[in-house]
Predict the structure.
Amino acid sequence: MAHPTEFSRTGLSRIGLSSPGSWPQQLGGLARNLLGLLLIIMVLLNVANALGRYLFGQAIEGSDELMVFGMAWLVFLGMPLVALEGRHLRFSFLEQHLPINRSRLLQAGLDLYVAVLCTWAAFQSATFVERVAMIGQKSMAAGIPMVIPHSALLFGLSATALVCAGRGCWLLFTAFSAQSGKVND
């Protein structure tokens, strides 16, 4: 019996998505590097703010907002990567005890369901971002246009919807191909 994430990893390699030079692998590596850089910048900003506050009695104005907005972008940029690899939190007891094709069908259904939910939520987020842009709202301390942090949610939901839709369709294809004898398990 295969572990639920096992078929997603081996399946991605079957169609060339997890080979070292493939575009999803390169894009994922670039995104991970950018996320790591963003995290390092946030830590350095936090250290600089603490040093300024305790050594010089002067904090960096707006640094707390920048760190909160950076954390939002960190989470929502990472969300599609986690979805692509099938590493999100889930209850996998049923998946682990099903034959691989049924496990693929179950995961495909879940991925497509998540894609629908993320698409709906992305449309709601787009409406909100549009309203914030029309108002021209800015953050209180740093004066950052609030469209920037709210766009993190829109981006993360949209990208996750695309990833889950693609992954769900691929899992359906492999499950039905295996049933017809075209793909070996």
Summary: The first helix runs from residue 4 to 14. The chain has one domain: 13-87+96-179.
